[in-house]
Amino acid sequence: MAVYLTKDSKVLVQGMTGGEGMKHTRRMIAAGTDVVGGVNPRKAGRTVDFDDRSVPVFGSVADGIRSTGADATVVFVPPAFAKSAVTEAADAGIGLAVVITEGIPVHDSVAFTTYARARGTRLIGPNCPGLISPGQSNAGIIPADIAKPGRVGLVSKSGTLTYQLMYELRDVGFSTCVGIGGDPVVGTSHIDCLAAFEDDPDTDLVVLIGEIGGDAEERAAAYVRDHVTKPVVGYIAGFSAPEGRTMGHAGAIVSGSSGTAQAKKEALEAAGVRVGSTPTGTAQLVLDLLGNRT
Predict the structure, then answer these.
(1) Are 132 and 138 in contact (CB under 8 A)?
(2) Which residue of 16, 24, 70, 185 has the smallest Cβ count within 10 Å?
(3) Known catalytic membership, residue 249
């Protein structure tokens, strides 16, 4: 079992015929993802060859769903077209939309995340690395060769830290790793993933990676305290970040005492989450807890 993405997921790629879309579609297919089609209205009816597979291009998400039974889409379109791409996918009834595109205007993100949610589409991102269920499927840009299947769930704001924790725990393995993105507005939160991992019988422990800015981690801490029975290990990036300066992600900005790494660490620890001081130390906490459970 996995969270949101399984071996049975049938994936469309919006923007597949562009440079990034082509590169990462090839990587997704190599990882075992069932990529059933691309979407580009100007190239509908063509096929694109990826090593040993020819993938058809459809004129719309709706056409792709009708022809293939697709239930997920990965969005690689430029920022100006992201809103219409997500809206189209939601209107077509797609179950999962993974928006890799960065630099999307916040007002567009507000609009399409709200729209997707109202139509029952699970949206991951924007500005995220996607998600992977190792050995089953990979939707996005996460390297598939840095982790094996296992029983740890991972939810992270940071793509780079997603990769690092996957590598640190490569011998343990993961059920699903979800990069939710670091923008101020995202479609899936830490809390959404915590709830999904809590309900997943094949996830024994959850790693939560946050960063400075906003209050998502504090809200996640409250949710862990009230609803999560599985052990949770956390890491917060940004202890040395200067106040008032945006650091990398658009959402990673501290104002006064709000959104600081220390405040987030204290909230998580008060909820029973063990918080590491470094990514490697965080991985060691996971190993210690798994050792205690065997």
Answers:
(1) yes
(2) 185
(3) yes
- pTM attached to this predicted model: 0.93
Do 173 and 60 share a domain, yes or no? no
User: Residue 211: which domain range?
Assistant: 146-293
Known binding residues are 17-20, 43, 100-102, 163
What's the rounded Cα separation, in Å, for the pair 105 and 20?
Answer: 20
Between the alpha carbon of residue 130 and those of residues 22, 158, 161, 271, the distances in Å are 16, 11, 13, 28
Closest to 252 measured CA to CA, from 182, 189, 186, 191: 182
Question: Looking at the DSSP assignment, which residues form a beta bridge with residue 211?
Answer: 237
31 and 152 share one domain: no
Over residues 123-150, mean pLDDT: 96
Which residues are annotated binding-site positions for CoA?
Answer: 17-20, 43, 100-102
Q: Give me the amino acid identity at 125.
A: G
Which residue is catalytic, options 24, 190, 227, 249?
A: 249
Distance, CA of 96 to CA of 246 (rounded, Å): 30
Q: Residue 270: how many CB atoms within 10 A of its CB?
A: 13
Q: Is the pLDDT of residue 245 over 70?
A: no
141 domain residue, yes or no: no
